[in-house]
Design goal:
Length: 223
């Protein structure tokens, strides 16, 4: 039986950075479900679809598939590799919007569950422990304060030479948390059986070793 690790948490908590590294250490496959919502968001942006009704109508034409290239997840949208196009703030905001819509979530659920059936995976998202993989062997809820998440994002953008405003970044993070936590279908919340990891005052290495310890306690993955 495949081992499944679920990592949920708000935007900017470091889920993908951490999950990628943990996956490498354990020899697991990393599945980034946010990228799937982002691919659907890109489709809607390209087609100027911006209401819930229209998204419901168009979503069946946005076929999302996952492939792996040198161990890195690639997202295909109608056979086009869009991995390099989905990391913008615009696409992230639209992803949070389309993620509220039942038809969108339904379309991605089977893809996510099928990946986890076949392989040992560490899957990150918002509803993995609560909805996608309710029987996951290990569930982590990774969070950090909004100001710390904003600080990290600010530094990241500054390092890339992108001009930005810390307060605006924090406001966007808070708005995204609201939208992801308050939606009706599969909102972001900590699963009852998830372990809470607050990374506000932790280094990346500390978070990784904390998570590996939790995984070791709960599975035979590292024996
Ligand atoms: O993790 P991310 O920023 O790439 O996710 C983009 C959006 O997708 C996020 O704001 C909410 C949505 N999402 C979701 O609703 N459920 C998931 N399992 C993953 C992402």
């Amino acid at each position: 039986m495949a081992i499944n690790i679920a990592i949920d948490g708000p935007a900017g908590a470091g889920k993908s950075t951490i999950a990628k590294k943990v996956a490498k250490q354990l020899g697991f496959i990393y599945v980034d479900t946010g990228a799937m919502y982002r691919a659907i968001a890109l489709y809607m942006l390209r087609n100027a679809v911006d209401t819930e009704e229209e998204v419901e109508k168009h979503v069946k034409h946005a076929n999302v598939e996952i492939a792996y290239q040198n161990g890195e997840q690639q997202v295909l949208l109608n056979k086009e590799n869009v991995s390099g196009l989905i990391r913008t703030e615009e696409v992230g905001k639209m992803a949070s919007f389309v993620a509220k819509i039942g038809e969108v979530r339904k379309q991605l659920l089977d893809l996510q569950r099928n990946l986890a059936k076949k392989e040992n995976v560490i899957m990150d998202g918002r509803d993995i422990g609560t909805h996608v993989l309710p029987k996951a062997d290990v569930k982590i809820y990774l969070t950090a304060s909004a100001s710390e998440r904003a600080n990290r994002r600010y530094k990241e953008l500054c390092e890339k030479g992108i001009e930005c405003n810390l307060q605006e970044i924090e406001n966007a993070i808070i708005a995204r948390d609201e939208q992801d936590m308050k939606r009706e279908i599969a909102p972001l919340k900590q699963a009852e059986d998830a372990v809470l990891v607050d990374s506000s005052d932790m280094t990346i290495d500390e978070v990784i070793s904390t998570i590996i310890t939790i995984v070791k306690k709960n599975t035979k993955a590292c024996e």
